[in-house]
Write a structure and sequence with these properties.
- The protein is mainly β.
- It has one domain.
- Helix content is 11%, strand content 37%.
- The strands form two sheets. It has a three-stranded antiparallel β-sheet, with no helix packed on it. A two-stranded antiparallel ribbon has the order 1-2.
- The chain starts with 9 loop residues before the first strand and ends with a strand.
Length: 65
């Protein structure tokens, strides 16, 4: 997750006053995408299986952010 400006290949979502921009092609591969705010930052979940590549977060569709 990073600050960015939208381009014509992005999908935009406004959720509770926050604007989220996702590359449309990536969105098709990763959906559903879920962004949660926790006390120490954001937690991202998506439909991509990252396997053991994320250290201790090896759950399907979830990776520590």
């Amino acid at each position: 997750m990073a600050l960015d400006e939208p381009v014509n290949t992005d999908s935009e979502f406004d959720v509770d006053g926050y604007k989220f921009i996702v590359n449309t092609e990536f969105l098709e591969k990763a959906k559903p995408i879920k962004v949660d705010f926790h006390m120490y930052g954001f937690k991202l979940d998506c439909g991509i299986d990252f396997g053991a590549g994320c250290g201790s977060c090896g759950t399907k569709g979830s990776c520590c952010a």
